[in-house]
Amino acid sequence: MNPGRRSWRATLIAACVALFATFATGHARATPWAEVGDIQLRSDIQVLAAAGLIDNVTMQWPMPWGGIVASLDKADDLEGQPEYVREAAERVETMARREVQTDRMNYDLSADFTNLPDVVRGFDGMGREDVQGAVSGEWMGSNTAIRVSVGAQTLNRYDHQTLMLDGSYIAQRIGNIAFYAGYQTHWWGPGWDTALSLSNNARPFPQIGYRRLSTTAFSWPILRWLGPWNHEQFFGIFDDPRLARNTIIHGTRFEFNPFKGFEFAIARLTELCGTGHPCEFSELFNVQNGNAYSSKSKDEADLDFRYTSTFEGFTYELYNQEMNRDTGPFVHSDTSHLFGASVWIPVRNTAVRFTAEYADTISTENFFSFGKDFYGITYTDYKYVDGWQYRGRTLGSSLDTDSRLASFHASWLGPQSVTYTLTYYRAWIGSPLTNAVGAQYSASGYGNRVSTSPVAIDIAEARLKVPFRNLSVEAAVRLQDDQPRPDKGFAAAGELSINYRL
Predict the structure, then answer these.
(1) Residue 441 has pLDDT above 50, yes or no
(2) Gap between the Cα atoms of 362 and 213, Å rounded
(3) Which of 82, 201, 355, 411 has the fewest CB atoms inside 10 Å of its own CB, making it the most exposed?
(4) CA dist., res. 375 & res. 431, Å (int)
(5) What is the domain-level CATH number for residue 444?
(6) 405 CB contacts (<8 Å, ≥6 apart)?
């Protein structure tokens, strides 16, 4: 088929699905967990965790509703909390109880339209393409949840799949564990704009796994000191066009809350098997990965830290994520860094969240060797030239390798539950050394996928999210002084996202 004709056909299919999603009707969605994307929900949950009303195990999404509901049921000091904390508790509890309703069929319909997709894709990322839409049907019982989601999108130079099943899954609860299979979006880390190893930047890949549903602490005396904890593990497959076809990815993550306000998490992701590679699952246990024990897999390991507390009625958080391309944090690690801080300032019955964040995917030799950098290797290596990506997008930072992102947010919930967000980004995408030095590690001389050559971009964004009963409308306006190469120059974008629930 002619490429131009194929592009128009894909655009027409995506637009038709998006329009149907806009005007169709259904019931409210029910899910066993809070999913990636709702920035106000995440903000409310963080406020409640800082106040001690729920367990401070909140860096791992999706986040099961069961633990949140159980914690709020036990909370007995709401009257002593500031008004914005009480309002956040009411919103979260109302949403949680609505989402966990069982034994009925539910529907969810969404559409997104833009003339230029956002360069930076944070926790609340909107559309990945010019037009996309999806229709979902879900049934949730007392122990089983099933969602079938069918969508379509326009195409880009990497992703040529028009029809999407993103968000579809089946989950089965056995005791305190939910086993699932499907296309799940993850966000691992404390950042609001970047998760270094696993984020919503790439489309979800097919996977099977399990996650803990309650964050109850160990009863064993030796482990009780770890406090509330969470755990997830999955196996996925990269079934997209790539040099090493059908690569397997394994992820496991533990998160702990050893004392009030402090969260610590450790995670490891491993890419193995695939065309031209040995399929040795013993690699999952090879944590040395040094010269004496050369790994046959590609590994990423995370260490996440966050401290959240309150002071004189203000809620604040300080957080850090360290991602090691190999295993050890002190030697042979190739470390990327993320730092951030937020403060919630009370305004009447709500609070304005101010966040400053900085992420750097230029690998340093280890945790502490700032200035001793390695280029072109953060999301790839000589073994897996395709790298840490799925359908053309990096699994972690939306700016890909050898990039830096500084971001500043002001976000607040106004009257009639309208959410306002103002954001400034300074994005340094790629480096002159990316291709030159990366060629030493990658047979293809791996470069940055976002920009064909280095560029620095200033981006200003204003967002407005308005709920109308069962309809939620989010609009964004973005201005940027330059664009990822090969495009150049000033650009203005508008985006409209519509979600319908009845």
Answers:
(1) no
(2) 35
(3) 82
(4) 8
(5) 2.40.160.130
(6) 120, 193, 194, 357, 358, 359, 397, 399, 425, 426, 427, 428
In this predicted structure, the answer to whether residue 318 has a pLDDT above a threshold of 50 is yes
Give the range of the structural domain holding residue 345, as residue numbers without chain letter. 3-500
pTM: 0.91
- Tell me whether strands 404-413 and 335-347 are parallel, antiparallel or unpaired: unpaired
**H or E segment to which residue 493 belongs:** strand 491-500
Confidence of residue 220 (pLDDT cuts 50, 70, 90): confident
How many beta carbons lie within 10 A of that of residue 466, not counting itself?
A: 15
Distances (CA, A) of 163 to 16, 151, 152, 153: 12, 6, 5, 7
Bond prior to 32 in cis (omega within 30° of 0):
no
d(CA 379, CA 402): 9
* The total number of structural domains that make up the chain: 1
Do 92 and 107 touch, CB atoms closer than 8 A?
Answer: no
Residue with tokens 């399990």: 210
User: Mind listing the pLDDT tens digit for each residue in 340-387?
Assistant: 999 999 998 899 999 999 999 998 887 767 667 888 889 987 788 888
Give me 211's structure tokens. 């996650």
